[in-house]
Amino acid sequence: EDQVTQSPEALRLQEGESSSLNCSYTVSGLRGLFWYRQDPGKGPEFLFTLYSAGEEKEKERLKATLTKKESFLHITAPKPEDSATYLCAVQASNDYKLSFGAGTTVTVRA
Amino acid sequence: GAGVSQSPRYKVAKRGQDVALRCDPISGHVSLFWYQQALGQGPEFLTYFQNEAQLDKSGLPSDRFFAERPEGSVSTLKIQRTQQEDSAVYLCASSLWRQETQYFGPGTRLLVL
């Protein structure tokens, strides 16, 4: 069974204070690892897909990286509008459904 | 273009009542998924449609849950005889094909009293 563990559960940052979120996973053959952002009362919003170890993707202040066992989401010089819950999910190579972690709730104070 | 839409956004039901939740996927998306999200948790898979065919319903928690997509577009998730443990956010997602990126709707927040 696919498993995804995210840490920390919550992260409080000062504006401009860079940090990283961790997503550890076990899956029987990884097809893709997905990062989503979820604001309160809304559905998950797609950010990135990573397919193989060593791959990196960037979007504004966010950068996602992937190894064979984990993924990191780096937030560089965050702003209050980066406050959200960040969800990590894996999709196995022989499957279509996403298996999600519980998320990391990031709060950025001005 | 338009994203995935869901209705209603909020639903309050009395225990034992039947409810129906609607999902309008992105136009042209073949694959449609339903997920259930409990408070403070990540979404959990319920069921998967490819066009009008329900290919996987392994995540449906009981036989009180039923989903359909009769014309391969709009989908309805029905919960019969609702129980308090059914209270959650129900998310619909669609993708171009089965392993492509899934785009989520805003969800329906169901509260069973």
Please characterize this protein's 3D structure.
The complex is a heterodimer of chains A (110) and B (113). Chain A is globular, with a radius of gyration of 13 Å. By secondary structure, chain A is mainly beta. Chain A has strands at residues 3-7, 10-14, 19-26, 30-38, 45-50, 56-59, 62-66, 70-75, 84-92, 99-100, 104-109. Chain A is 0% helix and 59% strand. In chain A, 35% of the residues are buried. The model of chain B has no long low-confidence stretch (mean pLDDT 97). The A-B interface holds A 4, 31-32, 34, 36, 41-46, 49, 87, 89, 91, 96-103 and B 4, 6, 31, 33, 35, 40-45, 48, 56, 59, 91, 98-99, 101-107, 109.
Low-confidence stretches of chain B: none
Sheet with most strands of chain B: 7 strands, mixed
**What is the percent of helical residues of chain B?**
under 10%
- Proportion of β residues of chain B? over 45%
Largest sheet of chain A: 6 strands, mixed
What would you report as the Rg of chain B, rounded to the nearest angstrom?
A: 13 Å
Please state roughly what percent of the residues of chain A sit in beta strands, choosing from under 5%, 5-15%, 15-25%, 25-35%, 35-45% or over 45%.
Answer: over 45%
Quaternary organization: heterodimer
Tally the beta strands of chain B. 11
Low-confidence stretches of chain A: none
Distance between the termini of chain B: 37 Å
Number of helices of chain A: 0
